[in-house]
Amino acid sequence: MTDQAKAFDKIKGHLAKDKIVIYMKGTPQAPRCGFSAQAVSVLNAHGKPFSGYDVLSDEELWNHLDEYSGWETFPQVFVDGKLIGGCDIVTEMHQSGELKKVIEDAFATAGSGTTIK
Amino acid sequence: MTDQVNEARRRKIEGLLREALDPVHLVVEDESHLHRGHAGAREGGHFRVTVASAAFEGKSLVEQHRLVQDRVRGLIGTEIHALALKTIPASRWQPG
């Protein structure tokens, strides 16, 4: 298996496990970048569970996440396995009310598992 | 990093986006001074782009941002450390 295929499997696993996933610099508890911190604070405002993965401490993610998502910068927020955007988009959607709808729709969907950590 | 270097980068970003997106509104601001001293600031400048263009019509925000990022891709990680983006379809642009 190539490094890329291994990384893609890992990412797909993350996205299958949780409805909301953020790939970021640092962790939700200790962000290491202002944009990641901002995105986490937006997600926290919605009160739904999400998982954060630190790209700075995971070489596979650091090297291959952009190839998976087609997005070059961090953070990257996924809802229901789909890239929603980075800090600016998430903030803009939060302010417009669109993010609330996207998140509610995701959690209204029956089926795939929701893990509360 | 000197202000002249970031001003040159700012103009480069502005030029690339103006050429690619034929914007009805485009502002590129250098915000590097706000981030002086943090680790990534050595790698490149912090810029804030507000751009309104017909190219964004009917596209999702992710697609709109990709259109911008694709134009400056070669600069990310070298001359650009961070790019804050606000994209607006031309039909929704309200001056002032």
Can you walk through the features of this model?
- Chain A has 117 residues and is an alpha+beta fold.
- Chain A has one domain (3-101): Glutaredoxin, CATH 3.40.30.10.
- Helix content of chain A is 51%, strand content 15%.
- Chain A contains five helices and four strands.
- In chain A, strands 2-1-3-4 form a four-stranded mixed beta sheet.
- In chain A, a hairpin with a 2-residue loop joins strand 3 and strand 4.
- In chain A, helix 1 (3-17) crosses helix 3 and helix 2 (34-46) packs parallel to helix 4.
- The longest helix of chain A is centred in the N-terminal third of the chain and has 15 residues, at 3-17.
- The model of chain A has no long low-confidence stretch (mean pLDDT 92).
- Chain B is an alpha+beta fold.
- Chain B has one domain (3-92): GMP Synthetase, Chain A, domain 3, CATH 3.30.300.
- Helix content of chain B is 32%, strand content 26%.
- Chain B has a three-stranded mixed beta sheet with strand order 1-2-3.
- In chain B, helix 2 links the parallel strand 2 and strand 3.
- In chain B, helix 1 crosses helix 2 (61-72).
CATH-assigned homologous superfamily of chain B: BolA-like
CATH T-level fold name of chain A: Glutaredoxin
Q: For the terminal residues of chain A, how far apart are their CA atoms?
A: 31 Å
Low-pLDDT residue spans of chain A: none
- Major β-sheet profile of chain B: 3 strands, mixed
Structural class of chain A: alpha+beta
